[in-house]
Automatic annotation (TrEMBL):
It comes from the Eukaryota. Residues 3-132, 139-226 form the Ig-like domain. It comes from Zoarces viviparus (Viviparous eelpout). SMART domains: IG (SM00409), IGc2 (SM00408). This is V-set and immunoglobulin domain-containing protein 1.
Length: 307
């Protein structure tokens, strides 16, 4: 009896203590990209809501924690990056509802959202709840490529990959004949988009189609597998070699033409006139030398009898 009486006295002195309780009826939310996500959060508090504060935070594996929404004294504060997308709760002090809605959800919005509610002096208890949001995205158009020598008897590998898609897409390969009829592939294919065809033969040439699929939808890409792929590479190499030879011939011709122009440099008109005037003078000088030589000989012959 005494312990019970003591407890009653203690309660009468301290008063009845109420604890705040914050809950969410839906801890996991899945939406498709572009749709709206409703993040539900309710609370129970015995105190008046004159000092009520509500805060929503977001965190993901690729981002640090950031504030999405804040409420205090009847005022809504929405972070700049979420303005125009967040629908705040209506009269949360009366409805005890702190739920928000986010429109146009993107892949980067997937993560954990935390609802925190404080109502002084109700500060003890369970004051927050988490909502895990997953955003589904259709696979983007995949990229198909071929690796290896596209010749009979060789190993050829086809790859297919989508840059975007949630959940992660799975890939399948099929072969299309001339009538676009779907045919099974004879090589080894994996769900990651790799198709290996060993000892390829002419019966395996043709058009191949890859399909990337997840829970939201699918996308496809096609690639032509034929010996022309290898022939095109060879033709390109031959054309490149011919162009290189032509370029070398042009360089050689230019150098030879430049040297020829320097060897036969044209004479200026003034230089030509000077050469014309100097030519008779040179001829006269030559004639004088020729005439003087016989005269000297005659003089020598005239002197000999006197000796």
């Amino acid at each position: 009896m005494y312990p019970t009486l003591r407890l009653l006295v203690l309660i009468s002195i301290t008063g009845c203590v109420e604890l705040i309780s914050v809950k969410t009826p839906q801890k996991h939310v899945t939406v498709t990209m572009g749709e709206s996500a409703l993040l539900q959060c309710t609370f129970v508090s015995a105190e008046e809501t004159t000092a009520l504060t509500i805060q929503w935070d977001f965190v993901s594996p690729s981002t640090m924690m950031q504030q999405v929404y804040y409420y205090q004294a009847g005022q809504d504060v929405i972070t700049d990056s979420y303005k125009g997308r967040v629908q705040p709760p209506y009269s949360p002090g009366t409805t005890r509802n702190a739920s928000i809605s986010i429109s146009n959800m993107q892949a980067s919005d997937a993560g954990v959202y935390t609802c925190q509610v404080h109502n002084f002096p109700d500060v003890d208890g369970e004051s927050e709840a988490n909502v895990i949001v997953k955003v589904l995205e259709k696979p983007s158009a995949p990229y198909c490529s071929v690796h290896g020598d596209v010749e009979s008897g060789h190993l050829v590998t086809l790859t297919c990959h989508s840059e975007c898609g949630s959940p992660t897409p799975k890939y399948t390969w099929i072969r299309l004949d001339q009538t676009k009829t779907r045919r099974p592939v004879l090589g080894r294919a994996t769900e990651t988009g790799v198709l290996e065809i060993r000892n390829i033969s002419e019966f395996e040439f043709g058009e191949y189609q890859c399909t990337a699929t997840n829970a939201v939808g699918f996308s496809t890409c096609t690639i032509e597998l034929s010996p022309e792929v290898g022939d095109g590479v060879i033709a390109g190499a031959v054309i490149g070699a011919l162009l290189g030879c032509v370029l070398i011939l042009l360089v050689v011709w230019f150098i030879a033409h430049t040297l020829k122009k320097r060897r036969y440099k044209p004479v200026n008109p003034s230089e030509a006139n000077e050469m014309t005037r100097s030519a008779p003078q040179a001829q006269q000088a030559s004639d004088s030398v020729t005439v003087a030589t016989p005269a000297s000989n005659l003089h020598a012959e005239g002197d000999e009898p006197q000796a």
